[in-house]
Amino acid sequence: MKDLAKNCRIALVQGSPVLFNKAATVDKVVSEILAAGEQGADLIVFPESYVPCYPFGMSFGFKVGSRNEDGRKDWKVYYDHAMLVPSEDTDRIAKAARDAHAFVSLGITERDATNCSLYCTNLFFSPEGELVGKHRKIKPTGAERYIWADCHEREFMFPIVDTPWGNMGSLICWENYMPLARVALYQKGVALYVAPNTNNNPEWQDTIRHIAIEGHCYVLNCNQYVTKEMYPDSLHCPDEIAQLPQEICTGGSCIVDPYGHYVTQPVWDQEEIIYADIDMDQVPMSRMEFDATGHYSRPDILELIVHDN
Questions:
Q1: Which residue among the candidates 151, 173, 237, 249 is catalytic per the annotation?
Q2: To which H or E segment does residue 69 belong?
Q3: For the whole model, what pTM was predicted?
């Protein structure tokens, strides 16, 4: 592993998007980036599908073998507010990253420029104001497949961003339950493992702590805070929204060190930007006795082949 800069200041944005409103949510993202930059953040992390939102509880009219028109209309609203990459929206976020002098990781719903498919995507921006990485979720979970397509483009499978604090990569939400996907990142020497998600269950906390131990890397776990009142009244499925709990997504964002210990305890039931200064010396030190794809691997009997180039 190359020499790592010792100290990195992390900001996890456990925020609330302006649901189904791309423009207003991008405004909020820019404001949150600048606020974190004023606090000296080197890396600013946002949740999964923060722009325009993660559509908790919505079926978009899908049933096995049929659809309905009201659901189709709501899907079109979601489609219209998904983000093109690149676009004026990504240019605004890149400028905010430059103004904040920070790397930015942002979860979005991406609208493809050629086809009409949507993708659950994580973007990386550099402190120089450049879009330097894009990862599309390789397998949406359950009913997410109504909304998002699988990633098929190899260059978007497991991109790595070179930072002063080591290689940075991302898996989105339940991709992190895919053992071979995790190993694909470990093989690329990931030191900063970004995990944007929408999981607020106790088992997820067990997962991220295990990943930190398994990969001996920092895991940056970032979730949203969303309540039922945040849904716009203009949607065509009020009965679905009415059935949702008052607090839909309660957060739990935190940072876990390479030994599986909390650097910051999970934050629940509120919006908050969570700050921590992490010591990158802990990454090589933790791998002294266990390096998953280094001295503790057996490439003579175990091999992972990744089709990403």
A1: 173
A2: helix 69-80
A3: 0.97
